[in-house]
Amino acid sequence: MDLLPTIWFILIAVLWLGYLFLEGFDLGVGMLLKGFSRDEKERRVLLNTIGPVWDGNEVWLLTAGGATFAAFPMWYASLFSALYLPLTLALLALILRAVAIEYRGKGHTEAWRNGWTWCLAGGSALAAFCVGAMLALTTTGLPLNENGDNIGGAFAWVNIYAIIGGLGVVGFCLLHGLLFISLKTDGEVRFRARALAAKLAPVFLLPLVAWVIIVQFMHGGLIGWGLIVVAAVLAVVMWLQIRKDAEKSAFFAQALFLAVGVTAVFLAIYPKVLPSTVDDAFSLTVSNASSSGYTLTVMLIVAIVFVPIVLAYQIWSYSVFAKRLKTEHIPPAHQVPVAIRSHHQ
Amino acid sequence: MDPVLIGRWQFGITTVYHFWMVPLTLGLGLLVAILQTMYHRTGNEMWLRATKFWGKLYLINFIMGVATGIVQEFQFGMAWSEYSRFVGDVFGAPLAMEALIAFFLESTFLGLWIFGWGRLNRKVHLGVLWAAVIGSWISAYFIIVANSWMQHPVGVEIIDGRPQMVDVGAVLMNNTAWAAYTHTLAGSVAVGGAFLLGIAWYHLWRRRVDGIDTIDEKTGKVIVGSAPEVPGRDEKDHTVWYKSLRIGAWAAVIAFVFVAITGDIQAKLMYEQQPMKMASAEGACHDGHEFSVLTIGNLASNQCDDVTPVIEIPGLLSFLANGDFDTEVPGVNTLIPEYQEKYGTTLPEGEMYGAYSGQEVDYQPLMIVTYWGFRLMIGFGVLGAAAAVYALIVTRKGTVPRSKFLSRLALWGIAAPFIANSAGWVFTEMGRQPFVVAPNPDPSGVDGVFLYTAAAISPSVSAAEMLFSLIALTLIYGVLMVFELKLIMVYSRGGVVSAMPEIDRANYKPTVDKSDDDVLSFAY
């Protein structure tokens, strides 16, 4: 009888997977604008690798949020209200980052560009951290009462799991961003991204792997441990591939690693969606947090029809912008004139 | 500190702000798509220039709508968790549909449009813009379906104390939703039209003041000139602005007709579904059929006996509410006892009501807001439409008058439909109080489905947390508004060249390096 909620649990996991896989490199590239890129041309190359696609990628987050609201309103309400402060920070970060992408190139002073670069890099890092903390906490639990309300106060979310999960997603995004850059650019930037990924891959993935293993210890079973072994093998394959300069297979292995890792986490906590650390009886599960069968059925039909369509046109958009970018492709910055005669005499 | 009040301020500020960007996105998006379609059909470069110029302003505004829209998706759960739990079964569905059906379409195809110049073939490139614009129009539909369910709950049954969706068709075809949706879209096209009108007027005026365009004294017709030393100020430039002005003004006028028709439908639904909102829009204590043009007294006291209508139009209120001239529209004094009898005189006792538990319910919305919100909406809407009609008449000989005052007025006039839009939303949302989900006496609403705003807030979120987010969001929104306006002004002043550096042939160097075949035609 829990078939429909279970299907929706899987769909929500798929949405989060899509989000981490797609916006993962957007956030990574955003962070890499500070520290990695060496000059303005390089920063613009990086920004333009994600330019046409970042907004479509971010919709995966909105869809994950909206689908959670529709399919598991109790999960949505408890999680989002318990994480009021970190989600406020995530929103501020996402707002600044989005505006920075569009506005950065539209001003021509050093201060303007630099300010927006900071918004992009800082906003990407903060958003990645907060999303990671949220995902970690929904698997490790929050102090919820019988109504599903957080009784631990405004800072109940500050714990070691949130930090590990937050760093896990930040690290993953950084590595994912480097792999993406090595795949989407050419010239010096490409080689530097590849070299850095090859050097630091295990460091970047360490906190994420730690989170997956912690969740296994808390809730997992035999299959979960099997999946973790598979994920670990895939991570090693990814590392070996990028060390051999095989960018495509490294990126592919990274994608599979993420898919298996996310599966392991969601499988481990099932049928819970948000454990209560106060009393296990207060934990939210796929059955007590879900919408009615009617709503789940309606939404399932909508998802079955539209998810494939979305995937099809998003894949098409990636194919349109498949070409590698070089600094030589970036047009010079354009100073906006003032169309008034006296200014030109 | 009262978390409900802070939460309401936050929702109000973030939503009204978001809805400054959205109508421009909806309206200007449609107009840019029409301009590019004209380019595609005629091949005339003038249309390309118009598409690129208005498209640039569209994008500067679009991103702010995207950025502030994320907040909307999250803050139901963050600040209004009891609301989310109560309505989740029916309210989450349109939000999820909006993301899945509309947001993906809009964002993916807009990315293709921005970067697709010269890369996609012309027909496909036009198609992706239409897809993006249609995506934004669909998103408006779903969010208004969600909002209209709060105004007029349909398609549900109360099971275990919560509304459960039993008829998704009823939710999607909610008459309140279709009236509000068409009203909102028409209002958005008016915003887009006024935007074209104001900025195009400025450029035509600039060309006259700069001595580029002159008037033939005998015929009164315009003699179009050019100023080679000003980038982009050639003869074609005149047509770009003139066509933009005419299209904008026509769009605003036509939109206004639809605004009036759909607004009338909405008023009649409101009379059936939320009579208290109608009564407080009038500041009317007693039953009657006069529409108040001016009411004096202390509206702010919210005591309807403190106010006196001084100018009234007999029969107009009845016409707005019921299409005739003698229906007695119930006043606040008639309605309050009815509401008290149906829904009680005090809020229920219980934890979810917090400090409001057991308090007496004031069923009357804030009259000063509803009365003036209603009139500002209508007033600025009419003003904008009248200005657009005037613009059509006065510019029919090919350019605008040389009056600085009129050119300033045209620019400031851009604000009129924005104010009308905001006022309308503030009116309809505040007019629903003290309910977040309004009970409907009308048989088409589902009996017993309602929720007090006081019961909707997140119990676990403190007033201090709410205050922090309210201040942080308001500050950031304020700063970003300055940047958006600054960019819109800089790019507007620059004229077409600001979006098309290549037409400034003297100063434009197309490529820096010929080693590769294609430099991006657009890059961030």
Automatic annotation (TrEMBL), chain A:
It is found in: Cell membrane. InterPro entries: Cyt-d_oxidase_su2. Pfam families: Cyt_bd_oxida_II. The gene is cydB. It is a multi-pass membrane protein. It comes from the Bacteria. Its main location: membrane. This is Cytochrome d ubiquinol oxidase subunit II. It comes from Brevibacterium gallinarum. Keywords: Cell membrane, Electron transport, Heme, Iron, Membrane, Metal-binding, Transmembrane, Transmembrane helix, Transport. Belongs to the cytochrome ubiquinol oxidase subunit 2 family. NCBIfam families: cydB. The chain crosses the membrane at residues 6-33, 83-103, 115-137, 157-183, 195-216, 222-240, 252-273, 293-316.
TrEMBL record, chain B:
The keyword Lyase does not apply. Its main location: membrane. InterPro entries: Cyt-d_ubiquinol_oxidase_su_1. The chain crosses the membrane at residues 20-41, 53-71, 91-115, 127-146, 178-202, 247-267, 372-393, 405-427, 466-483. It comes from the Bacteria. Keywords: Cell membrane, Electron transport, Heme, Iron, Membrane, Metal-binding, Transmembrane, Transmembrane helix, Transport. This is Cytochrome ubiquinol oxidase subunit I.
